[in-house]
Amino acid sequence: MKAAVYTAIGQIELKNIDTPKINDDELLVKVEMCGICGTDIKTFLKGHHMFTPPCILGHEFVGKVAETGKNISKSFGASSYVFAPYIECEKCETCIKGAPELCKNKYWIDGAFTEYVKVPVQIAQRAMFEVLQDCPKETATLTEPLACAIHGINRARITCGNKVLVVGSGPMGLLICLALKKMNCDVLAADVDRYRIDAAKNCGIDTKDFSGEKFEEFRQSGISFDSVILANDQKDLVNKLLPLVKPCGTLELFGGMPKNITFEADPYYVHYRQVDIVGSFGFSEKDFRKAFTVISENSQLFSRMISQKVGIKDIKKGFELATDRKNIKVVVKISE
Ligand SMILES: [Zn+2]
Ligand SMILES: [Zn+2]
User: Fold this and answer.
1) What distance in angstroms lies between residue 284's CA and the mean position of ligand 2's atoms?
2) Per DSSP, what are the bridge partners of residue 245?
3) Which CATH number among 3.30.40.10, 3.40.50.10490, 2.130.10.10, 3.90.180.10 corresponds to the domain 2-144+283-333?
4) Gap from CA of 59 to ligand 1 centroid (Å)
C-alpha cells in the first residue's frame, strides 16, 4: 500500500509498504481523508519527541471499514466513519482520577497518511462515528482538533454566556472560538497576523488586531474577561494577559510550549484576584463524542475552515501549504 513516510525533518516520502494485518480484535480501515495538524507541521519542520523518523504522521482522519476482526460482531457497511486516534483505558490511576486525556495506557491508531490503518476494538466500540450525509468528509476530519478545543474550554471552566478572549487565531484558536460561539459565549479572537484575523472574521467571529501598539492600547482599555485562552506558544504573553482576567477567572495555556523554559507571572493576580492559570492537552472520549455532534450539526460553518485539499502524492506540497498563514486547514485525500 501507499504510505507517506516522514523520514527526516523536512522530508516526507511516498513509499510502498506492507498493508497491516489485523488480529481478531481489530478493524482494517481504508483511509479516505486525513487533515494536517499543527503537531504534524511542528514535527515536519522541527522534529518532535513523540515521533521519531521513519514513521507515518496524521491522526485526523475519515475512512471506510475494509475488514472486520472475528471478535467484532458489528457490520459497518460502505459508510464513512471518523475515528478518534486514541482512546483512554478507563482503568488506570489517571483515568480514575478524572483526567482520561492524560491516560498512560491509551489504545492508539498508527499514523493515517497511508492507505490502510488498524483500529483496535476499543476505538471501534467507543470512538468511531458514521459521517452524516450532509457533512463533507474533509469537514469531519476536524472532529479530533475540535475535541481538543472542547477539552480546553472545559479545563478553563467556561460556561454558557461567558466573555472569552482567545489569543492566537490559527486553526486551533478558530476551533475554540467556533465552539464557544455555539455555547453562546461572547468571544473575541486576537492575532497579529492579517490573514488569521481575516480568517476569524470569515467564520463570523469578532476580532482584535494585536499588532504593533494595538495590544498595549487594548491592555490599557480596562476591558476584562471571564477567561483568556492562549492558543499560541508565546510564553511572554502570560504575564501580559493576566491583568485582563476577571477575579476568579482563568488564563489557559492551550498552545504547546517546549519543556525546560520558564514564564513570568505576577503573583498579585493569582493571589488577590484568584486567577487560575490552567493548562489543556489532548481530549477524551467524551470530548470526541461532543465534537462529532457539534460538527455534524454545524457542518457548513466548520467547512469554512478547510482551505485546501491535496492528493497523497502531493503531500509535501500539502505540508508547505499548511505552513502558509493564508491557509487554515489543509486536508490530504488518501483514497476515494
Ligand atoms: Zn490534531
Ligand atoms: Zn487510563
Assistant:
1) 10
2) 225
3) 3.90.180.10
4) 6
Question: 3-state DSSP call for residue 188?
Answer: strand
The yes-or-no verdict on residue 49 having pLDDT over 90 is no
Look up the CATH architecture of domain 157-279.
3-Layer(aba) Sandwich (3.40)
For the question of whether the overall pTM of this predicted structure is more than 0.85, the answer is yes
Residue 20: asked if its preceding bond is cis (omega within 30°), the reply is no
Q: Which segments of the chain are extended strands (E)?
A: 2-8, 11-16, 26-35, 60-68, 81-83, 86-87, 107-108, 116-120, 128-130, 163-167, 186-191, 206-209, 225-230, 245-253, 276-279, 306-311, 329-333
What pairs with residue 161 in β-bridges?
A: none
Taking the C-alpha atoms of residue 190 and residue 210, their distance in angstroms, rounded to an integer, is 6
Q: How far is the CA of 311 from the centre of ligand 2 (A)?
A: 36
- Which pLDDT does position 258 carry in this prediction? 86
Contacts of 232 (CB under 8 A, 6+ apart): 167, 168, 170, 173, 255
Residue 160 near residue 154, CB atoms below 8 Å: no
226 C-alpha to ligand 2 centroid (Å):
31
288 C-alpha vs ligand 1 centroid, how far in Å?
12
40-49: average pLDDT = 92
C-alpha angle with apex 229: 281 to 58, nearest 5 degrees? 40
Domain positions in the chain are 2-144+283-333, 157-279
Please list all protein residues whose beta carbon sits less than 5 angstroms from ligand 1, which is an ion: 37, 145
pLDDT band at 336 (very low <50, low <70, confident <90, very high): confident
Evaluated on CA atoms 207, 249, 172, 44, the torsion sign reads positive
Q: Which ligand is nearest to the CA of 84?
A: 1
Q: Tell me, what amino acid is at 153?
A: I
Residue 37: CB atoms within 10 A of its CB come to: 23
Cα 183 to ligand 2 centre (Å): 29
Residue 108 Cα to ligand 2 middle (Å): 12
**How many angstroms is it from 128 CA to the middle of ligand 2?**
19
